[in-house]
Structures
1.
Amino acid sequence: MQVLITVLNGLALGAILFLIAVGLSLVFGIMDVLNLAHGAVYLIGAYTAVALFADDVTAGGFVLAVLAAAVAGALAGAALAGMSLPVRGHLDQALLTLGVALIVTEVMNAVFGTEVHAIPPPPGLDVSVGVFGQAYPVYRLVLVAVGAALALGLHLALERTRIGATLRAAVADRQMVEALGIPTRRLVVGVFAAGAALAAVGGVLAGPLLGAQPGLDDTVLLLALVVVVIGGLGSVRGALLGAVLVGQVQALGVALVPGAASFLLFAAMGAILLLRPAGLLPARGMAQA
Amino acid sequence: MSFSAVPPGRGRLVVPVVAVAALAVLPLVLGPYPITLGSRILAFALLVLSVDILTGVTGLPTLGQAAYFGAGAYTAALVGIHWTGSAVVQLLAGVVVAAVLALVTGAVVVRTRGIVFLMVTLAVGELTHQAANSWPVVGGTNGLAGMPPISVLPGGPPLTLSGFVYWWVLAVFVAGYVVVAHAMRSPFGRTLRGIRDNEPRLRALGVRTYPAKLAAYAMAGAVAGAAGTLWAAQARFVAPADLAFDVAAFALLSVVIGGAGSLWGPCLGAALVILVRDELSDHVDGRGPLLLGVVFVACVYVLPRLRGRLRRRKGAR
Amino acid sequence: MDIHLSPPSKTILAIVTASLLTACSGSSISGQQTPQQAAGPLAIGLVVPLSGVYAPLGEDMTNGFKLYLDQHGGRLGGKEIALKSSDEGEGPQTGVPAATKLVTQDKAVAVAGIVNSATALGARNAFIESKVPLVIANAGANDVTAGASPYIWRTSFTNNDVAASLGAEVAEQAGDGSVYLIAPDYAAGKEMIGGFKKTFEAAGGKVAGESFTPFGTTKDFQPFLSTIKGSGAKAVFCFYSGAEAVGFVTQYAQFGLADDLPLYATGFLTEGSVLKAQGGAATGAQTSLHYSDQIDTPRNKEFVAAYQAAYNEPPTVFAVQAYDAAAVLDKAIAKAAAPTGEAIAKVIGEIGPIDSPRGQWSFDADHDPTQPYYLRKVEDRAGTLVNVVVKKLGQD
């Protein structure tokens, strides 16, 4: 029974990771940009929640925080897109986005202080129910549901809409898409903004689990990078699989092999990358990484 | 930078010699704290050089050199505590251990490229970091303290003054730089640059790139190990924090700032990063990371123009 | 490199180099410490984290130290003080240079502070060799004061003592039931568990099991909480601080353990801003620590009022540790034969007991504080959560 609870927990974690990683993956896939400011965007979302409802949270307040975070994230993403477009080369982009991340997080430290802030779940969802005979926080169940819904939504958006098709084509062969006369620049900025918005929303939704504090952006960025690389760059399905896997490694893996808990994540990532360098579900049409 | 193996005229050596002389003179004019800072900068610059071998010259961006740096540092500290305070012995031991570790891990790691290589080296770095955290032999999370001051030769007088330690660090740094520069100008270096620019084409020409990449990886590991022994010599204390992701990331960023591929540029980048992180942080009331971020962003936009102007004055690359 | 220096440039460089040589302001190979000026304020160093995850502790410590200075007109031992501050950062990479800088560059005659144990271990040799006293105001690793060097003193705690103080009490409360032990997987976590286990088992306690969680990276404690539930333990003893404390306590309640299994810990679990973040989840947690802002003595009430007036928040144990470090230096400098590090260090052992907000304490043979540890319980007092003092856990 304990194992099932742990698996369920891994799925909750996976849901958060998917939310955060999918934007990172798409941005890399379509723009070939390594966005190391992604963790900082997540933190923007988390601190938005802190700013809007530090202690007393209402359902409406929570929803407002989600929307506000989405807007803040989208703006940040668009700004980052503008800054990164003229910069060529992964390493220079890494330098740029890391610099931006340092600036943004320091500004937030100055505004919100350096202590740990807890973000409470909305009322009604802050209870625990019996699952498999044990108390389990309802909020985490909600997260699993949200993650699944988002995955489905994104899948439909990518497969069934015109924009989705253009996006998939741009990931596979951007120059061809441009040759067809479709302005990819707007698409790219849009993907950046949407991905960042998702990450910021992730900051609010994951708030009850992870809180808000300095240094959290590094942790989240690292996890997102691992998810993206394991799953395969530029692919939503890859991000989902990667997120589920990483979630399980952190939950089930730690439960089964507690002595090696600190090593599990990177050992798993290293092993997967050595066997499948392009990731487990790379985007169709993408050349070998 | 020209690729010819014969330097065109002795005038070429003027600036390096003057630079080294200027560095060597510093202990006579600076107090102990700035000189220790100088030792740290030189040790870190040697680590950055090792990253440049892989990232700048061979086109393999790495986040794992901190692992070999740490291996060298811990080896030097263990040798110093349990065996001899001789810096030469510590250097050799550190270099050997790091090179072997690099060879063993590199055999698997250099099969990958690009961002995958980046993430795999990150994994190597983080796993080594965790190992240092967990292994009681190297002190676990508390680190390894109690390393006695180095002496140059076994049985020689210990160098307790920071100026003398600085001269040792400078000597090893210069020697390392010369070795690396020479290797990068050789046909081996040309192969590495070929791998960076167009590996499939090189393979089509019949060049076996895997052994070349592995050799570069082992060499970079050895250089990082040497840098680690220098770090241990000046700090006399090694902790898992010295192998953390931060160290690897800052080393990589120093290469980017200084110009990947040129050898002296990343060394200047290293100096800049250490100065901003360690020295200026106090003056800006703990807002060091903010300053660092501003420096990084500025470098991305300003430096390419500067580098372009420098290159045009020097003539064809 | 192909940059050629024109002849005039070479001359300029030669002139500059020559003038640098003649303008020797200091030297790193002469081996003599430039002596402190006889007149003028005494340089005292304070090295605490101003950036990074430990910054909140650094802030508290700076506040505590400065409060003491303010209460004494900016003087220690009757001498005017120039306080030199240095940023310890997150670990020894930045911390050790920051601490030694205060000695080599700022010529401090004494230095206080240091949160991180690894930094303390890395820096101590430099202080011993430079003959400058280091008064550690937080770092708890048992080995920091090993060897009882005249230059290394500690006003905070040892990991061993603060955890061991709870052993007998938990054994009594748990009775026949077993207790599960859990802490982060690093030196401090291991020392805390080790210290607790010794006195706990000596008092007849039974250990149900032990877990060490990955340090600094664990956000989700569910797998460990499940293990605890499955072990049949009747109570839990843990050590967590900072974000991990918030996560652990919150999830302890969310997964239903708080209702059935009493939670014991060293006081860092519920000290300072983490208590606010934990909210109701922390209620009922019993912790051991050498301070609580609820200590009901006139000395503490006076201190809490002064701290609250100055900084608008209640003091934490970190503030008190730094406050006492200033008190130690005050007494030592007054007693010292000369305003030098060596003279000050010589007399620190003779300053006698410190009248601290935490109670009276004095240095033991290892230069650590011999002090009372309090059993505290988290309770809601007029809408705010505080660490109520239940009783003293016996002299150490």
2.
Amino acid sequence: MAPQMFSWSKTFHRVTGGKIQVNYQSIGSGAGAAQFLEKKLDFGASDVPMPRDKYQQAAGRFVQFPVIIGSIVLVYNLPEIAYSKTGMYLNLTSEVISLIYMGEIKQWCDPRIKALNPGLADKLPCKDIVAVHRSDGSGTTAAFTLYLTRAYQPWNQTVGWGYTVNWPADEKAKGTGAKGNEGVSQAVLQTPYSIGYVEFAYWAKNKDKYDRVGGVAFIRNDNDGMYYFPTAENVAMGAAAGLERYTRKYGAKPAPDADWNPVSIEFTNPPRGYPILSFVYVFLWKDYAAEGYGDAATKAALLKEFFKWVLTEGQKQDNVVEGYIPLPSEVAKIGLEALNHIKP
Amino acid sequence: MTAERKAEDITAVRMVINWLGLGLFALLGVAAVVPLFLIIGDVYVKGIDAINRLGGLWHFLTELPPTPLDERGGIGPMLVGTLYMTALGALLGIAVGFPLGVYIGEMRKEKFANVARAGVNVLVEFPTIVVGLFVYAVMSLAKEDLNRYLLGPISNTISPLGEWIPWFIGPLDGFNAYAGAAALTLIMIPYVALITASAYASIEQPLREAAYATAGREFNALFIVLRKAVSRAVLTAALLGTAKIAGETAPLLFTALGNLYYASFTGPTAAVSLWIWYAAQTSYEVQIDSAYGAAAVLLTIILTIFIIARIRG
Amino acid sequence: MLGFLLVVLLIPYLIAAYGLLFVKLRWGLRLFGAFIVATIGLLTAMFLVEAYPIIARDGVAVFFQTRWDPVRESYGVLQALTGTVLTSAVAMALAMPMAIGVAVTINEILPARLRGIFGSLVDLTATMPTVIFGLWGLFVLGPFLKDAVNSVSRYLVGDDVMTSPYTLFTAGVLLAIMITPYAAAVIREGYALVPKPVEEAIYAVGATRFEAAFIKLRYVRNYILGGFFLALGRAMGETVAVAMVVGGNFSRFTTNILESGITISSLIALIFESGITISSLIALQFPNAASYQYMVPALFAGALLLTLFGLAINAVAIYIIQRGQI
């Protein structure tokens, strides 16, 4: 999320003639939320909504809303069936992915993988799968494991989701870690017979390199049974479908000062579209003066102006960084309404 | 005859061992340095190319950092932040590390000196991020009172004197350049101390006695007479320490935090190392380029410090 | 208030210490010694305070467990400690010979003109920013080592030993490159200051240059020890570069123990797997640790363990030195 926030900050800086500086630093979603609650930061951004226990502490005093959509792809390194060689990508499902990272599926020639890929079944080698995951706590891991938790029950029971999880593949199979999206990306490119999850942009920018050694996976949406390729349109389809499901279930759109954990559950594994997606959430206080910030009135006004711009102009294609997907307009409206809650 | 032959054989064997052994030492010595060339080469080749792509050296040194949507950018705020925090950190690091090193090296017989030496050894091995967390903790505890009783009144009195003053002195935010400098100081002290200690400990006894005899006071002996004997090592210590903290990243993460803009030193401050840490691991060419350009700039600064000191000392 | 007093009293303390240097030198110097001891004390106190919650909950289990499971709030730093020990061991095994090689090369082999340049080059390696080392390790060293080690192992045992470019071994090699200059700086100092009479005596008995080097190295063994500890400390504390190349497998140690017990060969196999060290664990996990209840205490427990480990090593060193002198 940092590149997008950074871009917005700089563009806004230019648009306001250099008057307003919004300094955004990436220190991790967890730190962002914690520092925000400790009032060390003026606003926080995170890949997951405010965790429930922290939400209780500050319930009603702050708002959270999505500002952009991110997505995660599964990249793999399998020289025998590389895209450049066969012209085909692998199909994967949440079940198979879970079993790989749980260390239950240990080799590429496992019948469960072959069943999903009849066209490539005879070419899949009997080599050990190296399952690459993150060594640092990360929102990418959180979104990825949240998806697996919602889509495949045994994953929910054994592993769960979070910024870091205990990967059974580390013990039972050849699981290995790497630092950052860049580390996972490099590890997969360098290690034959590996698979890893990375943010959309890391694959999009290196598509040719991945195609030469393997490729990216089509993921099946368990709700409508179709296989989706990671594209901006398919992700946007997923986001819109998720919002629909939430509205149908709860009868109204999510409120900005509510706990968004139930919301993110509805957006995870949506009824249609590419199923692995996540929102970037922003946290703002409702009343900066009451919370004890210096210069509260100016700060609040600046923040409102900035985020209003982010939710309108910032969603236009020119201002969106490659690898991120703009919000559907109904979702952006939630944020705009949230800004009205902020005094003055 | 036989004895001579045996002696010759042994000598021949010893000569062979001599060449092999020296060769091995030379190989090891060169091996220690080869990676340096590889890394410097890698960084400069990519860095200079990047700086050209991003708009030329002057722009690179002064402009704001590039976003993924930009085509040009620079490391202006980062350079300023690194120079300021490194200078402060180095000053304090030498100020505390040098006397500490003298103590450890010169007064080895005392028990407390050995305790201090152990303390310095332990400080060296702390994860650098933990030092930053320590400064962060102290900062959190002290910030409110510090601002209210000390910095607030001081800045109110001084700031009418000039518009630039609030950039340096004023109420501190949770993240600021001084916390960053403090963390860097703590990192630097053990290095300066240990190398200085080595220098003082290695002075031969006759020389030391002569120094004490001619100098009168111990202070004169240690710092004035023996100056020449230790100055090279102390200079090395100061240089190594300064260059080291110029490149540190982890201690700054929770103290200076980082900044994308030119801003006051009383708030979050940018640093070249933090930018490299962030930008090199994104997937956007323009940012990766700026990281390599920044690395090339940082290396050049360090090389310059080195060369100047070698020429003078 | 406490923090405020701490900061405010610091400046007068240092000024007083400096002033004392001019009046009563020894006491002034002692004040500086006290400063460092107090700093260590404060740091350790902070570790204890921060780590207390998890020690209260789990007792010493946190030090003996290898699971890192934030979802269930179950943490153990044993794997990290093992990683620190193994990477440091690899690093020191490679760095000490290189450092000694540097000292001998500079003082015995090179002509006088090249000595300064070579020495500066070695020092320059020390000053290279750790982030750049990390990046080089990520993009260049890791893949290179994987190919190199695997070619050797394919020849020896018929199988690839390194599954990924980012393992404890990669971290150890990178550390060796980074810490050699520190050990070398200290050893060079001592080596160059071997007294003339001693050197003349060595050559008078007809030693070859190699044998002379050996004798001189024995003569300066205290410096070698000093360099050893400086480099070791650096290796244990290195955070950023290690974090980028060490991998991140949090559970391998348990598996290895369960399968084959603690043997030399299982430890060697562990080196070529991806792992974690205490310093990199803290760097990698801390940013998001505030979201969890016990992760921050667990990380500080790791820092505490590292400190105790370091103190233990230093105690052993002091013992060795004392014995050597008696």
3.
Amino acid sequence: MTAITLFGSFLALIALRVPIAASLAVSSVIVLFISNGFGSFEVVTDIMYTSVAKFTLLAIPFFILAGVIMDHIGISKRLIDFAQALVGHRKGGIVLVTVLVAIFFAAISGSGPATVAAIGGILIPAMIKNGYRKETAGGLVASAGAIGIIIPPSIAFIIFAIVAGDQIPITINRLFMAGIVPGILVGIGLFIAGMYVRNRDIKRGIFNQSEEMQIRKSTGKEKWDAFVRAIPGLLMPVIILGGIYGGIFTPTEAAVVAAMYGLIIGMFILRKDYFKVLYKIFIESALQTAVVMIIVSAASVFAYIVTTEQIASTISDVVLGITDNKYIILLLVNIILLIAGAFIDAISAYYIFVPILLPIMMQLNVDPTVFGVFMTINLAIGLFTPPVGLNLYVAASMSKSNILQISRGVVPFIIASIIVLLIVTYIPIITTFLPDLLGVK
Amino acid sequence: MKILDYIEEVILFITFLTITLITFANILSRNIFKFSFSFTEEITINLLVLLTFVGTALGVRRYAHLGFTLIYDIAGKMGKKVIIVVSAIMSAGLFAILLYYGYEMVAFQMKISQTTPALGMPQWILSLALPLGALLCLIRTVQVTIEEIKTVDTDEDIQAVTNDQESLVETEEQKGEVKI
């Protein structure tokens, strides 16, 4: 009964356009009011405060800050130029450039829509100029931008580690390392889908091939120059991941070092305009941080209710009562997460679903690292699934197409990602191989 | 309301900059001078609370918070107004609870002179972040609700009201909130 009140009021509030953070907190307040009256409202305030006041969470504002700085000082443009110089002249080269830059930028920023915004402004017009239809261009960038939450550093993994950490020991370091191979696999899937669409459109005669061939091969000198200009950006993931796995920094410290590094190279790149831009960078980062953190805060109250009201154990009993076939349950979990991911953001999804699903996964002997990674791929796919995927709206406005056109354009990329998702779900060694090899616990 | 923009922005800027510098200084000191002043963690995590709640208020003002607007988008003029008012009451109710119980919490900590474990600072000064942020959120919710109802009447796009589109990321965030 409590479960129905909690989830029912949550969905009703969402439908009424109440922001997700407020919906999570208000539905929790309703449940608390029904069971205890006004007496337990202090709990809400208490949890909303203490759930945010955590050192681990400090990584989030710093990674956001680092990403915003990189965007403001034009690092994404330099990375794109470098990738173009390397592979831009090949057939379908721009598809590869998009996927490569998305993976690379993901290693800096850690957020999906931010990656789309950072790379889409340049790559979508470039793809259209190369003969691709605008919905294909938008669809590819929307989906490639979502890889951001699978490739480390990833805000999504930080949240997963915090939520799952209440039940089992799991580290951010291990999840970061585990995300690399599956993230690259999604990238390969998107590239194959992009090439498929290109070849299909050529056959149908709606792809202008003569335009594609206009990019000539870069000379060695041009490649070198592009490389040098890209160095400040290329070093960023080296600092973050090298620092973490070299045992020098915790993830939070790596994040602040990345942000400081960005602030310092920003000074050299922007020179005299720097201080004007700096204020804007901090305000913009603060705003993005608050949007994430208020969801963390409110969702913690929701997760508290899910746990204390025994909702998690009730649901897990019901599910395991239906079937104990691991493969069927994994499939069901993926379907539920794909649907949920299409309607709510990743952060809320972790707080709502991890307390419920993790006990089931443990019962079935699913490695929690694998669970964390395939759950994150699910939520990444949700970022570009119609009708409400956040990345789609960013990409639609950038490609000057409407949401219907882009929803059609993104379908091949959704299919490719789901195939990779199933591979990662059912072959756990893909995820665990790299962290186990390097001994990352 | 311009003054409120300014107050929020300045609080956010100073808070964010302070958190960054303290955390960075701590890493330098630990790695170079082998001296850790991790007790400053106490300050940084409480400043993160301030950043979150004041940032949330600015987010309300700039329509930056994630929500699901599909039903709102297809609703008629009257339906839109009903949704605006109902959702505003829900958000405002939450902020009112946070304001009231946040104030109680601060008052209680003052009464028993609770101090922070590491630095011995009065806890209530740090805890003030919650009621202060909640108050700003409450004011902003009322402000945008009035603005939105007017917008429905004049049939303008919400986009036009938020003329703050300095960067792509911000534009994207507003788009996300308006349509999603």
4.
Amino acid sequence: MSIEIGEGTPVQISEERQLSETRREMVLNMGPQHPSTHGVLRVRLTLDGEVVTACDPIIGYLHRGVEKLGETHRYSQFTPWTDRTDYVAAPSNNLGYILTVEKLCGIEAPERAQYWRMIMGELARVASHLVWLGTHALDIGALSISLYCFREREFIMDIFEKFCGARLTTNMMEMGGFARPIPDGLPEMVRDFCAIFPSRQKDYEDILSANPIWLSRTRGVGIVEPAAAISYGLTGACLRGSGINYDVRKAQPYLFYDRIDFEVPLGTHGDVYDRYLVRMEEMRQSINIILQCLDQVPSDGPLALTQSNYVIPQHDTVLTTAEDMQRHFIWVIKGFSPPKGEVYMAIEHSKGELGHYIVSDGSPIPYRMRLRTPDFVNLQVLPYMADGAMLADVVALIGTIDIVLGSVDR
Amino acid sequence: MGLMPQPATHAATFDPPAQESWVATRLDFLVNAARAYSLWPMPFGTACCAIEFMATAASRFDIARFGMERMSFSPRQADVLICAGRVPFKLAPVLRRIWMQMPQPKWCISMGACASSGGMFDNYAVVQGIDTIIPVDVYVPGCPPRPEGLMYGIMMLQEKVKRERLSDGDLRHEMEPDPASGLYIPPQAIDELSEPFGNSIHQTRSGL
Amino acid sequence: MSDAFQPVLPGAAAPQQPAPATPTNIAYRDGAANPSADALRAHFAAAIGRTEVIWGETTVYVDGAHLADIVRWLHDDPAQRYDYLSDITAVEYRDPELPLQVVWHLRSLPFRRFLRLKVEIPRGAPLDVPSVWSIYRSADWFERECYDMFGITFEEHPNLRRILLADDWDEGHPLRKDYPLRGYREYIQPGFEAPAPRVHSRLRRP
């Protein structure tokens, strides 16, 4: 059966075929423009009635060649593109990239900057989980949760805006620390947020966690066994929901996560409900981490390295001394040249393990800029989870993997 | 250098009657007000701008004040296509098909730098401006635009809707310019006209 | 597809060793190598090339023909237990003399180790490497992406087709160094006589 649309291009719509006495088959196309696919994800489902027999996610509808752009631009120019990869948690992307370049150059930012990076990274994690919860609940049917989550997210956007000027695509992390001072009143703003958020989160849990509709739509759906989770390379809440205790912050600590006391929540069954509980607990732990960081951060001290070739010179010395003006000019126009070599650095992004693999040949432009994004890998498990699930469960499964298509397609 | 002489143009004429009747102008006002204050958006949200669009629809910025809270994900029931985010070439036919599926009257808001001009992604994968695929009414700059910016764009669109006249017969025609009409300028002429600054249509000019 | 594999929790195989603290002093070159590098050399003498340690990460160059056996041994051997595949990617150098390298990032959760394997494909040789899909399911999309971006074919991959670009993208493989940033084709306003369109072929006007 074909239908003429618009200019006469025929479209094949799959007919239901009878394969045998009891089995039928129909191919249904979901997306790329669809309210529940969290972006432009296309899923080709093969259905037997309401039951999915095969599922083929087709990605690439948001591919924009970020890795190719990284090969033609300098290290300092690449940070804005990392924002747009996973746009709901932009500071985390910046952080992963900057930590990788710092590892490649062999420098480390001062203590105060490291603490503020942790605070901003954890705020980004909370922001990302709020978008996840809002859209996941919206897809399953709890429409009001999305409005509540975005209301909380606005507080975090205000904090980002006070810190760096932008709400969403923040571009806030820089080589060697932060070039601009921490604005007045920012620690108090973060503390205020941490004071109100737990009660709001308790509201969400009161609505959802014991709700019979929520339980029936998420319990027992999309079970991933631990062995399959490791084989499919899952990270983040997808892996921890199946009980594997792998969190990059604990396994290969970066920044000062080894000085902070926090727990890693684990699930037991590996279904959608467990991943929901894991992410809710991660939000609580993030608030805990932020408060500890605010207590431990030195209230004054340098925010950026000053004498390193890899770090942009400080603003005041640039405008007053000749050497720093020259260094600034060369740093901006020509770029800094890291040593030859390659490095892979992973951080615990809200979606999982975000890894950057940079190959440097000693020039200011990277040879190879590879972003190993967690969603790209996590999305591979969708056919495994959807096998035998109902069509309505596919929506819950896409939400539980927590994908952001900018990060999947890069 | 100098500009090429302009090709003979065939002007699209709009001849309203010298004085429209009072009833016709009131009818215009009613119809346009009804359309402008209940534009149902079709959020073709791809990327970061889609998150800002969702924030605009959320409680702090509240797009429901404009009558636009009913997101229509089916293009058949939508009035305005808000293309929020970058459109790679793989997605371009999808956008075109969605636009063709929307019934008239329809408008388009190109939200963000990537939808308006390709944004910061000037490479092999991204369409350098959706106005090469679909006709756009309002461009909202920003990367991503603040919710206030998007609302300003929506208000501009509302002004545009309110200025429409039912007596304008050509308003709802989607024309592809006939190459013989002179409205069409071939790409080589566009390049000549825009030397030496180049233009976003001619992509491979820098050899990168 | 799940066999009797029992997942071992991180660090479980080396419980006396606490989780590594944030490393502050790593040598740029010639630091302590991953013990798996020596174990590989002992087990697969001929197929192992040189070993490099840069910023504390060990890279082992291996022979492409034996890659599948090497990776399977790393996965199954109880003293190695590389149960997690982080990434598969490729690096092409601008210098036309240097070979194209295909890179595997492996992680051992029980032993808290990280290893990078590289296979070098000289210029002019066919871009063919074995697939590790039978060992790690996550290799599926990694290998499809390498095929899409570089043109490297992976033998015995079940479903090797383009993933990030359209299926009928016929301009080549974008991450190759000879592929220009902005692509080859002019891009066109739909409906007009002009160079070949880059829009998906179904929309071409007849």
